[in-house]
């Protein structure tokens, strides 16, 4: 029997009308980068704008956020504003939301994608390192919700939170991210129940391995993960996530609330977690072999906000 490999998903331009989100405004946290449009949130924002939305994107580096916003505007003809913000600081997030309202007068869509990550076992991870990821991922999401909720009540808007599948299978070396993403999914469920009565919907998109992301390039172990190990024969792509994003913020999905959508082709059911148990037993050897970087866990570089 020949091995099946799932064809690439169509681009959103082929599946959704160009004016789907005309008049809508998206507020986006997460990796917004010009490096080949390598971030999930960058691609989500591009798709939203290609279908009529304007966008307000935030990052800790103002210059990078503004340059990314300019590139998105050039590609789509829609308005995009880049703003400096630290999602760990509720006052910083509130200032960013106020700026978005001053620019656009409304917010209809919020994508919470700010995240940090590195590889480390519990035994080698400091409390500060654990807290750093919780602060960015979980508290960053909470702060974003708190700052935007009144505006989404007015617009009957939708939240999308970017989580993961790591915590479903006890992924080694990812306790900090697993705890944060599980917390975000719980937060989204409560938000869906409390704010559904106000017309707000809240859902999570949980990608598995995503082809072309910085995370797969820097956080996976060389030679231990292949696309053939996925039941459908390929990893998730930006198009998969973009299509789901457009659907979830559209009227076609207005009954969907409090859900977690796993975008992994069933990978989480069969995929071994990064060469377990060798990755735990031989943690130091993996550093020596260059499979992971030799850095103190408390000083690991965080993904950009």
From TrEMBL:
SUPFAM superfamilies: NAD(P)-binding Rossmann-fold domains. Its EC number is 1.3.1.124. One of its GO terms (molecular function) is 2,4-dienoyl-CoA reductase (NADPH) activity. It catalyses: a (2E,4Z)-dienoyl-CoA + NADPH + H(+) = a 4,5-saturated-(3E)-enoyl-CoA + NADP(+); a (2E,4E)-dienoyl-CoA + NADPH + H(+) = a 4,5-saturated-(3E)-enoyl-CoA + NADP(+). It is an enzyme of class 1 (oxidoreductase). The keyword Cell division does not apply. Keywords: NADP, Oxidoreductase. One of its GO terms (biological process) is fatty acid catabolic process. This is 2,4-dienoyl-CoA reductase [(3E)-enoyl-CoA-producing]. It comes from Wallemia ichthyophaga.
